[in-house]
Design goal:
Helix content: 25-40%
Order of helices and strands: EHEEHHEHEHEHEHEHEHEHEHEHEHHH
Strand order of the largest sheet: 3-2-1-4-5-6-7
Radius of gyration: 22 Å
CATH class of the largest domain: Alpha Beta
CATH superfamily of the largest domain: Glycogen Phosphorylase B
CATH topology of the largest domain: Rossmann fold
Length: 434
């Protein structure tokens, strides 16, 4: 039997974005006959919310080994909060013990806790095991080096993280059996950085659509809570997910359009949830200053603290209009696009022209797309187009959006299709047919 060792520091009941790909693929791995073990953190102080209902989606046959990590109560004195660094020595030891006794066929790192990934090269050197790296975000991020970018946050912590990423990325990826990336742009960046990189080293694999999660949500409505106020006559437009500084140009277009509709017969209100990855005690609003500049602070409601994954799916079902927002990082491929389209609510997507997100919406349909040209002020043409869409919604008319191509979504982007492609890669690197 083929054996797969997955390194995913975040795992249910912790709800964090970077474990969703693994979680949704596990049932399909097991169904295909693979024996799976997950190495994860036994974090007693997780920054992400706990969501015990997600444990129901993990097959019983999957062995989950939870390794200790240093407590933040002690590491905070050294400015060390990152989960990867806090668990690294324990993860290394647990991995060696498991490799010696269980002997996996391939090791799969699927996480944004990048500092755990160099263990793949160390384990390969000692035990000859192939490892596959999954880049859900860019490991080395050049956003803050671009002209006009804001200063990076975090001071010395950012500089340390950036330096370690530039030191470890190439060293780790060079000996990997394969690299999976959610965006072709991230693979293009690797080709520019490393002369040894060749196209056959990597594959683009989007996030999977959470079909089974919607089924769980409908079967367990008690597992979620309503986030939107009921009984209001306003047009409620909702978004759940990160709002970073790279997304401010998108907010400029959105807020400028909402400001133009301020005197409409039906008010427009925007609701943002889980916009910061920081803990609830440290989370800060991203859109407040922008909303104030456009004179709509009273119409924008932002809850920066993370919310439950199933709560976010219910939000998509309950809202009048759903939002998908793009980033200045044109390679940005948000995982939320597929659940948003699957929810079947009227949807508006706002993204830079030529971005991965814009291409995905054009491919699948299901949303009214507004693209903008990145520039110092909001793109007037994009603002006018979005204002027109808002007026459609205010008047109760359907959004002018192409229908969702469900057949294409199922074939290319369902959780089952993504898992099938993952298994093809694993089988290829261990030299057998799946």
């Amino acid at each position: 039997m083929k054996r797969l060792l997955i390194v995913s520091p975040h795992f249910p009941p912790v709800n964090a974005p970077d474990m969703q790909r693994v979680r949704m693929s596990l049932p399909h791995f097991v169904k295909a006959g693979w024996e799976v073990t997950v190495l994860t953190a036994d974090d007693r102080e997780p920054q992400a919310p706990l969501e015990p209902a997600l444990l129901q989606t993990v097959p019983d046959s999957v062995r989950v080994i939870r390794v200790p990590c240093l407590s933040r109560r002690w590491t905070r004195f050294f400015g060390l909060n990152n989960l990867a660094w806090r668990m690294l020595p324990f993860l290394a030891t647990a991995g060696i013990r498991l490799i010696r006794t269980w002997r996996p066929s391939v090791i799969y790192f699927s996480t944004t806790q990048f500092t755990t990934m160099p263990l793949g090269r160390l384990w390969r050197r000692s035990y000859g095991l192939p490892y596959v790296i999954d880049l859900q975000d860019p490991w080395v991020n050049d956003y803050y080096r671009q002209p006009g970018a804001p200063p990076p946050p975090g001071g010395w912590k950012y500089r340390f993280a950036d330096a370690s990423a530039r030191l470890l990325e190439g060293w780790t990826l060079r000996r990997s059996a394969h690299v999976i990336s959610v965006s072709a742009r991230y693979l293009d960046d690797l080709a520019r950085r490393y002369p040894w990189w060749t196209p056959d080293r990597g594959s683009v694999l989007t996030f999977g659509a959470p079909d089974e999660d919607f089924a769980l949500l409908r079967a367990r409505p008690d597992a979620t809570r309503a986030l939107l106020p009921a009984g209001k006559r306003s047009l409620r437009i909702a978004y759940a997910g990160r709002l970073g500084p790279d997304m401010l140009p998108t907010l400029e277009v959105l807020f400028a359009a909402v400001a133009r509709c301020r005197d409409a017969t039906r008010p427009v209100e925007l609701y943002f949830f889980g916009t910061s990855y920081a803990g609830a005690d440290r989370a800060e609003s991203t859109g407040t200053a922008c909303a104030q500049r456009h004179g709509i602070a009273d119409l924008v409601h932002e809850q920066p603290a993370r919310i439950g994954y199933l709560d976010s799916l219910r939000l998509l079902i309950d809202t009048d209009v759903a939002l998908v927002l793009g980033s200045e990082d044109q390679g940005y491929s948000p995982s939320k696009i597929y659940p948003t389209l699957l929810a079947g609510r009227p949807t508006m997507a706002i993204a830079p022209t030529g971005s991965v997100l814009a291409g995905a919406v054009e491919e699948l349909g299901g949303a009214a797309l507004v693209t903008y040209r990145p520039q110092p002020t909001a793109d007037d043409q994009a603002v006018a187009a979005l204002t027109s869409l808002l007026q459609h919604c205010i008047a109760g008319r359907p959004l002018p959006a192409p229908p969702l191509d469900r057949a294409r979504l199922e074939v290319r982007h369902s959780a089952a299709a993504v898992a099938r492609r993952q298994l093809e890669i694993f089988s290829r690197v261990i030299g057998c047919s799946d």
